[in-house]
Model the fold of this input.
Amino acid sequence: GQQLNQSPQSMFIQEGEDVSMNCTSSSIFNTWLWYKQDPGEGPVLLIALYKAGELTSNGRLTAQFGITRKDSFLNISASIPSDVGIYFCAGTSTQGGSEKLVFGKGTKLTVNP
Amino acid sequence: NAGVMQNPRHLVRRRGQEARLRCSPMKGHSHVYWYRQLPEEGLKFMVYLQKENIIDESGMPKERFSAEFPKEGPSILRIQQVVRGDSAAYFCASSHYMGQTQETQYFGPGTRLLVL
Done:
């Protein structure tokens, strides 16, 4: 089945530092999404990317949809303590019309004040 | 503007009992998805439904699991004769399909199932 390889698995940074995480796949995805999950909660959408090469920002977050459609990265600039959480990449590909999401295993971010 | 609602938030069942998880999609959304998340893992797709139709159940275990999304009321994920391995967080997501372009899926807070 389709898989997304997300790295790094975890990150420990100081407040104010920039963060970068990425996802790669051996198969093509038509949409890339980045979600954040806080403990005990559901994933919250951060950024959605619909076109190859697309670069999108949401405040201090920037994400890009790779040209090959097989990768995406998420950058967080000037991290703050509330950035703590687990970040998931997810992708969709057309398979008979179903738009199920395939998720990476997540990047656990810890920000030290 | 209510988001995706799920209840209960926490559910404890003994082995062999039935678990019923409910999901009310966002207003105006007609597509519902169920995902399962094990500790320290990403979400895994289970089933995709539209009103009164199962579109894709390729991620559902063949036995004991079923899902429905009736014309009226919430979507239900039903697990019969639960086993300890069913313990997980179950998330529902909804979206609004717009022709060729599907809007993003928005997730509920999840139901945490613990099987004793």
Notes: The longest strand of chain B covers residues 43-50. DSSP finds no helices and 13 strands in chain B. Chain B touches chain A at residues 4, 6, 31, 33, 35, 40-45, 48, 55-56, 58-59, 91, 93, 95, 101-102, 104-110, 112 (CB under 8 Å). The radius of gyration of chain B is 14 Å.
